[in-house]
Amino acid sequence: MKKYFFYITILILFSCEKVINVESNYSDERIVFDASIFKNTNEKFATAIVKVNKTAPYFEENNTEIANANVYIKTKNGNINLDYDSKKKYYTNTINYINYDEDYEFFVKHDEQNYYSYEKLIQIPGIESVEFGERKSLNKDEIELLITFTDPIGVGDFYLWKFGPKGDEKQYDYLVSKDLYTDGNQFTFSFFIDKTEYFQKNEIVIVEMSGLTEEGFNYLNVLTAQAGAKNGRPFSSASSIIRGNIINQSDLEKFPLGYYRVSEIDYFSLSKKDAPDGLFD
Length: 281
What we know:
There is one protein chain. The chain is mostly beta strands. 6% of the residues lie in helices and 43% in strands. It contains 2 helices and 17 strands. A hairpin with a 2-residue loop joins strand 8 and strand 9 (113-120).
């Protein structure tokens, strides 16, 4: 088995604040879904989490959560209804068993509109290690993480990487990748984080790996290019209309925004205590 080590340059998605005044005409209200089924690589069960919102003027700060939708997942063993958690502001339930061959159909009914999508469970190889690197950045506050995994051979894999949390608001950085140069090999890549943001309130950084379809990879690239990972949710809506993989069966022209994913997920936690001497001085 060959091991490949690459340093790659990436775009870190982040939020910034600036006081501006905007006047806009707004009429095209749509439903926005942030829908996922995640299965930990070490577990047999999965968890479904669905956030349902309505669009508002881009700079509007009013509450847009929808708490009265009928949300369920259809499996070969029957329907699984998702209950609304008023504190976390999303619909959720546990799927006791999930496999790689079955289509997991996603249904939402709201205001006499029926929304639908389906996906199969994406398998991932998992994270082998995360450690602090020794390379320096032009930004003196940035430190290097080295992430290692082994990409399965002969499979067109696409991944979403999540790094965080950062500060009190628990924001995250995201990276999408595909196995163009890693197919069938062990691979280590370099990711720089700002230690003043990541370790401001937390003593650990969590690296999360999940899978993407090719369509999801392309969607996320377009979305982040136009809007960035707003509010730490890369599958949320952007300032312009981008069609995802969910349709409105009642009115195909009034399609919703957002995306539906079904994937394995893996985590790796790295403690500040594991850093080399002097890294945080």
